[in-house]
Amino acid sequence: MNNSQTARRMQSVRPSPTAAISDQVRALEAAGKQVINLGEGELDFATPAHISYAAIAAIVQQQTKYTAVAGTAALKSAIAAKFARDNQLRYRPEEIIAGSGAKQLIFNAFLATLDAGQQVIIPAPYWVSYPDMVALADGEPVIVPCEEQNGWKLTPENLAAALTPAMRWVILNSPGNPTGAIYSEQELQALAAVLADYPQVLVMADDIYEPLRYDGVSFTTFAQAAPHLFSRTLTVNGVSKSHAMTGWRLGYAGGPQWLISAMQILQSQSTSNPSSISQAAAVVALNHPATFFDGWLQTLDKRRQRVLAMIAATEGLSANTPEGAFYIFANCQQLIGRVTPEGETLSDDKALANWLLTQTQVAVLHGSAFGTPGYLRIAYAVEDSLLESACQRIEKACGLLR
Predict the structure, then answer these.
(1) What integer is the mean pLDDT of 98-123?
(2) Quick one: pLDDT at residue 1?
């Protein structure tokens, strides 16, 4: 055996496309290019000051030791209060876990529950990490394409057609990455009616973008819409998008005790507790009113409208108006096959995204990374002047294609 040979499981996993685009951007910047990154899922706002001060206070007070694996009692209490206040969900402390980001908790949930051959329904377009997480846990990703004309949402008919005796999970991400789609309470109830006949199937509600909603659209999480499936639902959330705390790496989840216990055992043998400082900051984040958020939403909505205006003005691009998150999932199929001024034929969405990066120094992500070729994901959570420049560059560049 070659001593540099990796485990067989690594053959089924790819590097995160979002991390890859960030690496490309850094390489171009190191070469002296001024790149505008519309490929990264991160708010440009600063973490609110009162949260940062809470972290500083925790350091000064020497809250720097190991904590309980699943989180401190204070953090669990704050998480339980958030779920009750915002989602009308009641979780006991033993039904709650905090981890080093929501991403870790999703991975731990799959690792704790999937055996070889068991399946997970992943509606496409999907967050890039879902299929690889499932594969790493020896599961089988079942990609269910969702249609632009259906608002990019899983329908009861598509769900029913995909369900098998081997099915273990269904993932529902709302508001969605990369589309910004939000499931209504009635839509979730219709999906729950289908799942009633499949008692072995668990539901993962990935609500990480919960507060990022526009035009007065309401939010309902799956267990809230379908309380009879509460015991089969893992509700995942975190402070990265709601409080601009991506680098703090703090996610949380509520679910049935048997599942939370299994996830805690896994966590005890891998990362152990999330950062004690991040936990102290998250307590303040969750317990204090988010008075800053209305201002954030107004800024993001203005940016959303600017990108939509650019798309409307760019021949060959179109897009649904997203209800949430901070992405536009733009249809670029009319640009596929066109020729650049340099004589290159753009064979697919990845080629288009690469051309935009190299020629205009604007980074976007190709839809193929999300399981839906022929689209581009444009993240608009960047400073206004940068976004304006990026929109002008994209519109001008697309106009050069023949």
Answers:
(1) 98
(2) 57
| Percentage of the residues of the chain whose pLDDT score is greater than 70 | 100
Domain carrying residue 278: 63-287
Asked if residue 47 belongs to a domain, the reply is no
**Predicted TM-score of the model (pTM):** 0.95
Q: How confident is the model at residue 392 (pLDDT cuts 50, 70, 90)?
A: very high
**Can you tell me which residue has the tokens 């753009």?**
346
The CATH number linked to 373 is 3.90.1150.10
Q: Judge whether 58 lies within some domain.
A: no
Residue 2 pLDDT > 80, yes or no?
no
**Mean of pLDDT values over 275-302:** 98
